[in-house]
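Dear V.,

Thank you for sending over the compound details. I've combined the ligand you provided, zinc ion, with the protein sequence from our construct and run the structure prediction for the complex. I'm sharing the raw inputs here so there's no ambiguity about protonation or stereochemistry in the SMILES, which I know was a concern on your side last time.
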Amino acid sequence: MSTPERTWAADPSVDLDAINAGLDPSLPTADVAVYYPSNLDPAHSAKVTPELLLSGFVAAKDVFGAAGVQLALVAFKTGWLDPRLFEINSAENRADVPSARFTNMYAGAERRPARLSADAMAAFETMIDDVPGADVTVHLVTLQDVFMEFFEQLDYRTWQRKTISTGGLSFPGYMHGDTIPRHMRGVITITDLTKSPTSWKTVAHEIGHKLLNVSHEYRDVSPQHEVNADGGLMLYGEGTEIPAGPEGRYHRERLHRSPYLYTTDADGTRTYNADYQRGGFYYDPIYDGVSVDLDAEKAAHDKGT
Ligand SMILES: [Zn+2]
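Below is the predicted structure of the protein with zinc ion bound, written out as structure tokens.
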């Protein structure tokens, strides 16, 4: 039996210079790398193609460009992935207690962060090299199925465990904090870019989770597991807005404070935003003044104010 090619290398058919043409060094920029296994099952391969990944990236460039942020494609790599890692659970089960009832989901996640499953760790380690700058790069990793488990509350004392297959999953700071090895903390899995009429925005939406560090929320919609509505980038509908100010839940301000963003001066030196100070959860000190006090918001709502 011949040994498959295990080394991950740049796909020579992807012209990074053409995709990155016109970037302005003085504008805040985030680097994105894409990974595409060369041995995916034929029955899956149409769900994520290199063309769909690239068109999703170009759509994301426009979405973030409208909010004053550039995306640079710094690598498009292919290589062999152990087929036992084509389908994975996103997180290990140890953390699976229903989210805290007596505080909001972001504060609850900080108490009990999600942790990568062993298979997720192994898949990401195959593709993402531990090199300088890896920890401030967004890594779009193609897999065949990534399952996510969560609890849905049915009544006061009953929760139902749900397992859903994701089309994209962002492993965001607000869920994982600093439990992901640092060089791969920018990981996002992409598993299906064909499943809905809004799949063109999946790449942008997942990068949004990572760079805005928020769940599914928009203006007066508070964060939830799944929201099917049009409006902002962070809901599942057609919207792409990254709104500013308190009425926009500070999405644009949070984006511009992301540690993944840098500017480049005239001699080519990069200056990155400050790194997370307390694990990178929703209420990390880097977001002082641009986080919503959800417990206060809920209390005001319950009082009818
Ligand atoms: Zn989402």
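A first observation: The chain has nine helices and 13 strands.

Warm regards,
I. M.
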